[in-house]
Amino acid sequence: MFSLDWIYYAISWILLTWHSAWDAIGVPVDAVIGTNWAWILAIVFLVVTVRVILFPVFVKQIKSQRAMQALQPKVKELQEKHKGDRETLQKEMMELYRKEKANPLMGCLPMFLQIPVFLGLFHVLRRLDPAKDSKTLYGWTVEQFNSASSAKLFTAPIAGKFGSTADELARLGANGTTVKVIAGILVLVMMGTTYLTSRQMILKTGWAEDPQQKMVQRLMLYGIPLSLLVSGAIFPIGVIIYWVTNNLFTLGQQQWVLRKYPPPPTPGRTGVKSTGPVQPARTAGLFGRKATPAPAKQAPAAPKVAGPKPGAKPVNPKKSGPAKRQG
After folding, report:
1. Which of 46, 125, 177, 221 has the fewest CB atoms in 10 Å of its CB?
2. Average model confidence (pLDDT) for the chain?
3. Residues 197/247, Cβ–Cβ less than 8 Å
4. Distance between CA 222 and CA 192 in Å, rounded?
5. Residue among 191, 287, 183, 289 nearest 247 (CA)
6. Residue 264: is its pLDDT beyond 90?
């Protein structure tokens, strides 16, 4: 059976390294405002570490999405040409992707690569039970284990969750109401930031023409945030902190990458090609607000012709021609 211990060791090592770094800098190990900030920052910088490692993959994801978007007219032609012949259509589309070096699966790769990290952190935080005997598992010392198992966010333990049983809360020395309030707020923030990350990408790249890809976009936009309302109840608070931090990092990273690699211009509905350079249009902001159009430049006014001065002789335009030659 395939063991995931190497993931648990890696996650534990990163957490403990960052916790030691914050401790060395002088971040208080004891609770301040009911929060053990050294452990909270260790989780936050676990996200930073993973995202820095995956940044080249994220850039490839954006480039792949651009390539897929640019191929949409050709994909539509193939769909019209092979309507009803699904097998031939799939072969032609795969050949098109191979020829144009576009990979439809590349768009999901960063998310898939982060799943082991999420599962590893979930497993490690679930182990933070003071009743456990194996406190030195995955490279932890007894002192580090006891410190992490008592770490809190506004008096709610990071190992606690919305669905914690009374026995689990008692072992963690936590108040059930406090854990539910903190975990509930974090779950709502997790849902909101997950929705915004998907919305940001769709607003920048546009909705896909292919019905299947459009359905996937809708699932990412609405389905996943709604599913977190249920699954969030089993996530430890530390895992939700990781998820929210990851979403905020994604929002900032996507904004930067989308500016550096703007989406290709979308052709107008009339099908008329513009001869001048076309700038990619942004129809709405992150929260759906329409962007304010730039003020149109006014045509320069015609120069005013000064009237004749008072008392001046009128000028006859017929006499203002070239002078006659003297014979």
Report:
1. 177
2. 80
3. yes
4. 10
5. 191
6. no
